[in-house]
Hints:
By secondary structure, the chain is of the alpha+beta class. The chain has helices at residues 14-24, 31-42, 47-55, 64-69, 98-141, 147-193, 204-213, 231-238, 240-258, 280-295, 326-342; strands spanning 221-228, 262-267, 270-276, 299-300, 307-309, 313-320, 348-350. The chain is built from eleven helices and seven strands. Strands 2-3-1-6-7 form a five-stranded mixed beta sheet, with helices on both faces. The chain has a two-stranded antiparallel ribbon with strand order 4-5. A hairpin with a 2-residue loop joins strand 2 and strand 3 (270-276). Helix 3 runs antiparallel to helix 5.
Amino acid sequence: MRGIAARKDGKVDLFGQIGHFLADHGLSPEPTHYSFAYDVIADPHGAIAQAVRRLTDGGIRLSRTDIEALGGTVSSGGAAVESQADRRQGEPDARDDDAAVLVAKTQAQVDGFATMMREMQDETRGFGRDLAQSAAAIRHNTPAIPAAAGLDEIARITGAMLTRIREAEMRLAKATDEAEALRAKLAEANDTARRDPLTGLPNRRAFDEAFAVRREHDGPFCLAVCDIDRFKRINDVHGHPIGDRVLSAVARTLADACGDHLVVRHGGEEFAVLLHGVALADAAARLDDVRDAISVKRFRLRESDRPLGQVTVSIGVTAVHAGETLTDAFDRADRLLYTAKAEGRDRVCAA
């Protein structure tokens, strides 16, 4: 985004900045587009503005999908590129993943909810102040005011009070609905941020968190690192879409065989498993069954039904010692994995 320009009097030229924003992203000056631009420019430190900065890093134009994901609306014929074709060649997508956009939307809802509650608090204080002042005036002037007039004043105050209470109830109901939607969005954001989109398994972040919060009395614990053998060759010979299918198939096999133990895609063709309540010998035996189940699968190319060839995995597994850090345990399992590779692959090494 362009830097915010200042007028001669030192005030921010908000209107001009909104115009620049619309022009930069190919948006026509329609109310829906202006509203979205206003949300971005008027609060440069807000969640939506920060998400836009991430998406447009390096001069990249927002797409229709980007704007709609952030809560904006693109009018028909008014805009924004339909795809990411104009993103930099050879550069990764500006988004880490869809979770960043979802978190930004959730944060925007938090901000809106907080604003609504502040407004309700202000109105409540104003009502209390008005009521106190009116009551004091009635008490002070009661001797000089006819009884009927005093009753009319009380009725007026009571009516105003009831009206404002009804308005507050409506706003509170709306705020409650917003809170419920927010809770669902937060749950979705948390899950998305901890899940690998390709395989559907939890990701490395989820693994790190699970290791950190594990309870010693649920032990003993074992940690395994699994790697698909010669995976680069699968990608080079058959292409990345086939490689993705192999990754997903191995992920399913691991998850099914390990039951309620935590299986994650740790990165690339590497998976990690945190087993609880299992001694090292039993963990190694279970993982060897997984290795065998994968090695006997006969993968075939969906398009031609030709065999893909044998897919195997190598695994290193170790017992987690009491009080041991994740780094130490993982490094030991990783070294065992490389021992399995060096000894011929398609095997489990445990220590």
